[in-house]
Design a protein that fits this description.
Two copies of one chain form a homodimer. By secondary structure, chain A is of the alpha/beta class. The first copy, chain A, has 13 helices and twelve strands. Helix content of chain A is about 45%, strand content about 15%. In chain A, helix 1 packs across helix 3, helix 6 runs parallel beside helix 7 and helix 8 packs parallel to helix 10. The longest helix of chain A has 17 residues. Strand 2 of chain A pairs antiparallel with strand 2 of chain B. The first copy, chain A, binds a DNA duplex through helix 2 and helix 4. Chains A, B: InterPro entries: HTH_LacI, LacI/GalR-like_sensor, Lambda_DNA-bd_dom_sf, Peripla_BP_I. Chains A, B: Keywords: DNA-binding, Transcription, Transcription regulation.
DNA sequence: CTGTTAGCGCGTTCAC
DNA sequence: GTGAACGCGCTAACAG
């Protein structure tokens, strides 16, 4: 492998091997049966000597395919997104594809993400931001014929697959359980985007509805579900209130787990003094004392999502739109 | 915007606007001053009408630049990697670049990652797998003139920048502190890759060294630092031993925090019965009871890394190799 | 059966 | 404001 400044091209390999570029391409792509053994060897030797590596841009241009997929998420470091990233990355790897990640944490970034996607930086995308894309943005993407899997409860399949969660019923069940066991003052520990976003939150709607149906006090919604430190502080603040809650429903398991800790640190018993319910069904909920009662899917995995995407990406003709719903349930353990 | 099957090209926009493709390109890239206002408007209108979006592959090919960077990490869902991903993503976003993520969790994947990188799927990369790349792999990458920032204590700059952490001294300090406060049986809660990998671990070396210097018992190294559930189980197992430890040094803060919980659940006092030290200096260590004593950087951020990379990526000529060392310290809070 | 010729994919930019 | 070359790999059609 000779050192040189410009990357060698198939032309140079061909020249060195004394063959045409076509032959080089056939050899390098394993299209054997078209090339004699001896020639094959010469080409490989030449490529090796020059340190030839094909240009992925040129290849993508010619193939009209990038062999990359894109993951659009709301943030990094959230259990569900991380798992999605892992599962998609594993599936991509298996298919010989790469993964681009775009973090969409503002409307401006959403626009930029849509632009990028329309420029065909990837052959398909899983779209799962915490704030769903606008209809117009989705249409822009399907308009550019990009294979798409959208994770959202707010849209129906329309040129793309949809993966949704049916969380409402399970949440209702959780709140009914809290009410039935005598909780009168239920606090809701919310994600930031539930408070600022325009999108409805099934969880919070279930909360408001339950308060209403059971004739329970004024709503008590505070932020703090996004991270553990925030959750701890939020719970501390809740406990300092004169109308201290006797139950906390946290929009994330991480926050709920932290709530249990904060309550214990404050000398309160869970669930006797304060009941705690989380969302997500993290493994970690099994090691708290008491174990965390939660609302969530049977297991956190996104193989389905990855499969839907690659079905579309690798398909010859556009497949029918599909829709998968993951049913959540109320998983009663010890904290409520 | 007319619906059509093939994506429109600059040629078609040019034709519709009655100008040349060169003009279209100039207009679309804001190279004004070369184009009259009226023409400009016509081009823009034509592009809009056709729903023109430029092909990023063609652009990359021509520009010899992908406007993408790559992040190579050992896994997803680990606090430090997640933060790195966030910081890199933010920097990339600002520069109008995208981020590809490659998860390298096996030697085979490392080879594939190096291949991809050599094919120029990105204009530069931050390489930070839990198991460092082999020298030959690094050389293969610098050989293809790829701007590179390597996070590793095991290599010296050589055509790439290196970001290292000086954790040894702080770890030694931590162990000395444990010994000085009378701990005689110190357990080490290790990452899986510390046990299986060939790479030396500064933390564990500091541990072994300390045992030796202070004449402390046989080593007690168990896996469990990788995730919270594993950490909880590992600590339970440690406590069931006849030679129960009186101190636990966990290779991650997440494990250390979990250890505190497990100890409390077992009815033991921290630090009186068992001292706990973590690694990483997570914010979360401030909300445990007692607050977590840890070894780590003053703050977990990777702006430096991102800056180094983009300095290289955006530089006209290859800059000098640089090396940044983040000094860790022993941060004594309540748990030891 | 083995290998070649030649054009294509599409945006960018220099010389006129 | 334009013509045309160029970046580089892929493959259909063709020749020996």
């Amino acid at each position: 492998m000779t050192a040189s400044h410009r990357r060698p091209t198939t032309r140079e390999v061909a020249a060195l091997a004394g063959v045409s570029v076509a032959t080089v391409s056939y050899v390098l792509n394993g299209k054997d049966g078209r090339v004699g053994e001896e020639t094959r060897r010469r080409v490989l030797a030449a490529a090796d000597e020059l340190g030839y590596v094909r240009s992925s841009s040129a290849r993508s241009l010619r193939l009209r395919r990038t062999e990359r997929v894109c993951l659009v998420v709301g943030s990094i470091g959230v259990p569900a997104y991380d798992q999605l990233a892992r599962d998609l990355s594993a599936a991509a790897d298996e298919a010989g594809y790469g993964v681009m990640t775009i973090v969409v944490d503002s409307p401006a970034r959403a626009d930029k993400a849509v632009d990028l996607l329309r420029q065909h930086v990837a052959d398909g995308a899983v779209v799962a931001p915490s704030v769903p894309l606008a209809d117009a943005q989705l249409r822009a993407l399907t308009g550019s014929r990009l294979p798409l899997v959208v994770m959202s409860n707010a849209v129906a399949p329309d040129g793309f697959d949809v993966v949704r969660t049916s969380e409402a019923a399970a949440c209702v069940e959780a709140f009914d359980h809290l009410a039935a066991t005598g909780r009168r003052r239920i606090a809701y520990l919310a994600h930031e985007h539930e408070l600022t976003g325009r999108q409805p939150s099934e969880r919070r709607d279930a909360y408001l509805d339950a308060l209403d149906r059971h004739g329970l006090g004024p709503e008590l919604v505070v932020p703090g579900a996004d991270d553990r430190v925030g959750a701890y502080r939020a719970v501390e603040a809740l406990l300092a209130r004169p109308d201290r809650p006797d139950a906390i429903f946290a929009a994330s398991d991480r926050a709920a787990i932290t709530a249990i800790l904060a309550l214990r640190d404050a000398g309160l018993a869970v669930p006797e003094d304060v009941a705690v319910v989380g969302v997500g069904n993290l493994e970690e909920g099994r090691i708290t004392r008491p174990p965390l009662t939660t609302v969530g899917p049977p297991a956190m995995d996104f193989h389905d999502v990855a499969r839907l995407l690659f079905d579309r990406v690798l398909a010859d003709e556009t497949p029918f739109d599909r829709e998968i719903t993951t049913s959540w349930s109320f998983i009663r353990r010890g904290s409520a």
